[in-house]
């Protein structure tokens, strides 16, 4: 099959690789109808994570079940499914505690930017739609495989509550989905920190009541002013860099929680402030499966349209251009059609 | 008055200093009937915090109100009061959110190991007993000024819940109070990590169901075994060192929270594990005033007796010996009688 592979920093290729096959009775193979590029794919692309030369890359996709293992009960060929980036049996003690991303039988989608993807623990991991979805819904369904669930997790981890004020640090696809999540979860005021006009516009469509374009101390001062000097009731850190984390803690009010979902890179936590002001940190790799049924319902009912984060659609053949566009911030998020 | 002063690492003296006086209308002066030495006093004692030569030291005490400022409404001379180590107006937005330790008018007890202590924001900070307490209750009341409330905060921050498993890292007075708190908050299993037999005994009296004497990886393995390989539902980190924090995160189950109350010294958080396993960090400087009314009731009713952590009582004159005894771990916590 054709699949995206990475060979070195900035060396993305569409290659011919072996099509995944069922090896465990709990596996499924999904024919990808839409995949996409994640902000976290840019870490290896930029050489900030190790690269295994020739490895497939891409962990987000939706598609149609092609084949299932002998123990898969809930899916059959032809089902349209959302594939969470992390797979889980949804029955172990960690799954039952709502941390499906730490499942005892954890797996990951390894070829989301390809023609086919293998899903381990298919019954526990995937969620199917009621029949084939309208093409217009596909971007929003695709967003559920990672970014929307991840933004939602940031909001839940940060303890967003009805009537409160939430600040979202980061205007990538996850940050924008975090704005949408905070708004859906009832925050009265959602402050998006974003410098980029097209992203600010999506943030507003997703429910941001205020946008702070300034960064660093200036941005922190702007949030302080917007919150009457008190700070935010909940802060969503959706980047993973040290600067973003510092801003998150700087704008969080005493006693609040920073919900973090950006894979941390070079982060040094401000422990003194955390201790002195009782500001907690919660979150991590999103347990996508936990949120999927609820999020699917919200997409199908039209309550949310996270697919708006896709501002560039390319044929899979042009995946390398997709990476360039995201790296240069010409695109927020790229949808790939195999 | 006679007050404990610190002049350099390991140089503790009883000195003659000016008796505190009312300078703000919200102040009160308390005649100390019992003070004590805190584990955190050992940081400057051991030279791990800066020392301001000649400064008074000691932030925990109970006593009798000597004098109040013109705006103090809730107290009058003769009242027996518990003095939280951190003072607050108990009305600002941070206090109302339950973070009295981050009060806009924050203050600290500066001469708890002395004859008199000044309390700023007296109305907001102090809690009085119903008449003069029996002498037998004084150690437990004194524990409420810091360690018991701090242990309680660790348990609350860690999210201890009825029926769950809690691990307490640290067998100092705060750790032992954390055991008591976890037990009171309904944890079915409370695992105390302690190597020292006299402390293990108090831990058991405070409700520990299991004691793990091993430390480091061996101790972590022992907790893993006790929790069926799952990890603890809540972990109380009551030390503040890097080793204690690592152990806390190692024994915490995915999705749980480490409640931390030990002033962090040289701590590097295991961010990769926190992210991958969704283990949060919450807590910080305890909002003593928030818990005081409840804790006072528990002490008076006999439900808790945190005063058991005091295993050495000395006249204030012997305060230097008290520091030595705690530094050498000959005493868990020293009560000082002026």
Automatic annotation (TrEMBL), chains A, B:
Protein's UniProt keywords contain Transit peptide: no
Residues annotated as transmembrane: none
PROSITE patterns per the UniProt record, alphabetical: ADH_ZINC
One Gene Ontology molecular-function label: oxidoreductase activity
Family: Belongs to the zinc-containing alcohol dehydrogenase family.
Protein name: IMP dehydrogenase
Keyword field: Metal-binding, Oxidoreductase, Zinc
Domain of life (superkingdom): Bacteria
Named cofactor requirement(s): Zn(2+)
CDD domains recorded: FDH_like_ADH3 (cd08287)
All copies of domain Enoyl reductase (ER), residue ranges: 7-336
């Amino acid at each position: 099959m054709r699949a995206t592979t990475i060979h070195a920093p900035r060396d993305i290729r569409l290659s011919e690789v072996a099509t995944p096959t069922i090896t465990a009775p709990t596996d499924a193979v999904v024919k990808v109808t839409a995949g996409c590029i994640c902000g976290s794919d840019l870490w290896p692309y930029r050489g900030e994570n190790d690269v295994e030369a020739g490895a497939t890359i891409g962990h987000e996709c939706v598609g149609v079940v092609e084949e299932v293992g002998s123990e898969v009960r809930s899916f059959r060929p032809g089902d349209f499914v959302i594939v969470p980036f992390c797979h889980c049996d949804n029955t172990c003690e960690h799954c039952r505690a709502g941390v499906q991303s730490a499942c005892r039988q954890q797996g990951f989608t390894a070829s989301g930017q390809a023609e086919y993807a293998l899903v381990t623990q298919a019954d526990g991991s995937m969620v199917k739609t009621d029949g084939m979805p309208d093409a217009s819904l596909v971007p929003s369904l695709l967003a559920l495989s990672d970014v929307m669930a991840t933004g939602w997790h940031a909001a839940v981890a940060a303890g967003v509550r009805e009537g409160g004020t939430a600040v979202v640090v980061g205007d990538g696809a996850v940050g924008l989905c975090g704005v949408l999540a905070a708004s859906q979860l009832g925050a009265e005021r959602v402050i998006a920190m974003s410098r980029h006009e097209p992203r600010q516009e999506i943030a507003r469509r997703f429910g941001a009541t205020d946008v702070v374009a300034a960064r660093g101390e200036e941005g922190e001062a702007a949030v302080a002013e917007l919150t009457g000097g008190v700070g935010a009731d909940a802060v969503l850190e959706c980047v993973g860099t040290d600067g973003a984390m510092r801003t998150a803690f700087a704008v969080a009010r005493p006693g609040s929680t920073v919900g973090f979902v950006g894979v941390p890179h070079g982060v040094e936590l401000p422990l003194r402030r955390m201790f002195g002001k009782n500001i907690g940190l919660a979150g991590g790799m999103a347990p996508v499966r936990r949120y999927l049924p609820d999020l699917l319902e919200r997409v199908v009912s039209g309550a949310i349209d996270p697919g708006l984060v896709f501002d560039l659609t390319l044929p899979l053949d042009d995946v390398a251009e997709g990476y360039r566009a995201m790296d240069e911030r010409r695109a927020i998020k790229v949808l790939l059609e195999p």
